[in-house]
Specification:
about 400 residues, mainly beta, five-stranded mixed beta sheet
């Protein structure tokens, strides 16, 4: 009798647990990944029951939101199976049709706000069961993937940022950049989900996203660089040291996954109130020399807000000089004047040099320069207008200093 009552109590408690876990509608959150499991899952160490028929309806909570799911399962084929539908019931479009076996974090996403999940089992060979991790989300990438950096302003209320096309798979060849600013303090970042193509975490040569503390993308201020699939990178949060945070996303031409979803808010820097005492003297002069001075004390407050200005990357060696259009025209005009002036100076110097050379080479006025006559071996004598040439009197022999007589050839 006592055993029968205890057995009945266990059955009632178990059925009550099934009613709480199965056959229910669950509203998904945007703020964190949540999960639902088959009865008896027990963190992946238990098992589901035989002859089970369990379903859940996941609701994103708004018509512009979608459901992103990562399903881990270990079921007995071919009769212990699960189904996922893109809609509120089993008649909606099928995403997973009678799936069984074993897999980790298989990802699915809906095209509208609802997802319908159902699992059934037969009477034999129960295994671990089904784990569904889910989040409500939409594409929060904005205009940061259009080739220019998008600037976002953080407020004290959480806002969201995601990879392009989230929660669907991000497109190939994406290049995105966002800057999150808070002029009154720092920025709080909470990464809800990361699901990027697997790569070497030390290099991340393929798809990846990066978060930087500050408005510059430098190696020394990198908060996180992620290139791993879901479950390998758990959710994490970070509060910046500066008033800005930069988020960068890149994908190559192959292997696209779901991307990332994060939320951010402004952390307002604490203010300090300091009383200041000011003494004001009022002097009233009367008709003669009588003076009367009144002193009053007026309290006032000064509010100081402390922010940190990020330093630029110390690794950069390139200096950029920016000029306006008017400044550029002024610079060009000055260069042109300098070129013209230099050319004129060069021409003047050339003319002066030529004049000096010519003037120096010209003989002085009133003087005649007798040309040098060449040596002639015969003398010329003019007699009666008849030119007679006779040999010069040149010795036929010349004695050298050494005493040796040399003969000259005949003229």
């Amino acid at each position: 009798m006592g055993f029968g009552l205890r057995y009945l109590a266990v059955i009632l408690m178990f059925n009550r647990g099934l009613c709480q876990i199965c056959n229910s509608t669950i509203v998904a959150s945007q703020n964190q990944m949540e999960s639902v499991t088959t009865p008896g899952y027990n963190g992946g160490t238990g098992s589901y029951t035989s002859n089970m028929d369990c379903y859940w309806v996941l609701d994103a909570g708004a018509d512009d939101l979608r459901i992103l799911m990562f399903v881990t399962y270990d079921t007995s084929c071919p009769n212990d199976v699960f189904y996922i539908h893109d809609g509120p019931d089993g008649s909606s479009t099928t995403l997973a049709d009678g799936q069984c076996g074993k897999a980790v974090a298989t990802h699915y996403s809906t095209s509208q706000r609802y997802a319908f999940i159902r699992m059934t089992s037969d009477a034999t060979l129960e295994k671990v069961g089904l784990l569904v991790e889910y989040v409500a989300a939409k594409d929060y990438s904005g205009s940061g993937c259009g080739g220019t950096r998008q600037t976002l302003t953080a407020t004290e209320t959480f806002q969201y940022l995601s990879s392009p096309s989230f929660p669907s798979q991000y497109p190939s060849d994406s290049s995105c950049r966002w800057t999150i600013n808070n002029a009154l303090g720092t920025v709080d970042i909470e990464v809800v989900i990361s699901d990027i193509e697997d790569g070497d975490p030390a290099v991340c040569d393929y798809d990846h996203y990066e978060i930087y503390d500050g408005e510059y993308m430098c190696e020394h201020n990198t908060i996180q660089k992620v290139c791993q699939e879901f479950q390998k990178i758990p959710a994490y949060n970070y509060t910046s040291n500066s008033s800005s945070v930069v988020v960068k996303f890149f994908s190559d031409s192959s292997v696209n996954r779901r991307g990332f979803l994060l939320r951010y808010r402004a952390i307002i820097a604490p203010t300090t109130t300091t009383p200041i005492t000011t003494t004001v003297a009022e002097t009233t002069a009367e008709a003669a020399t009588t003076e009367e001075t009144t002193t009053s004390t007026t309290p006032s407050t000064t509010t100081t807000s402390t922010t940190t200005t990020p330093a630029p990357c110390t690794t950069k060696s390139t200096t950029y000089i920016t000029t306006t259009k008017a400044e550029g025209l002024t610079i060009n005009f000055e260069l042109m004047l300098g070129f013209i002036g230099g050319s004129l100076l060069l021409i003047c110097m050339t003319i002066i040099i030529v004049v000096c050379v010519v003037t120096k080479a010209k003989p002085p006025s009133g003087k005649h320069i007798t040309p040098v006559q060449p040596f002639r071996p015969y003398e010329t004598v003019d007699k009666n207008s008849i030119r007679i040439r006779k040999p010069s009197k040149i010795p036929k022999q010349i004695s050298s200093q050494s005493g040796v007589t040399q003969k000259l050839p005949p003229w």
